[in-house]
Amino acid sequence: MTHPIALVIGRTASDADLDDLRGLAFDVADRLRMSARIAVGREYDVTKFECVVLADNFAEGYESAVLGCEALTSDMCALWVSDVYEHPYTLQCGHCGEADADARPRLDGDTWSAPVCDSCADAHARGGLVGVLPLTAAA
Length: 139
Known about the structure:
By secondary structure, the protein is an alpha/beta fold. The protein has helices spanning about 15-30, 60-75, 80-85, 120-125, and strands spanning about 5-10, 35-40, 50-55, 80, 105-110, 110. It has a 6-stranded mixed sheet with strand order 4-3-1-2-6-5.
């Protein structure tokens, strides 16, 4: 199963910058209902992602500025962070579709999953539902 992934680009010069970008990626996954990967470094082909989300500070770091400019000049979907916040928080599971205000993205490494309810994430962790999450960890 292929899951669409958004690449979230912003400054990562300090631990605080990385924490801010991680929080933004959570919001991207939750509001756009797709996995969101944090861009750390320049080794990404932006055109391989479903879309790119540009943090307000993306132009303040060399690596993030290069990736952001590549995205803006490519024939792809590039969103400003303000565009993401126009979407509401997810109130349903991205796998089973059930209404669940507690469905949330799950972090694995540098990637947040789309929002998933606890029962689907638990079933995935036990190996009962293959492909629920594109990640190795369900929690």
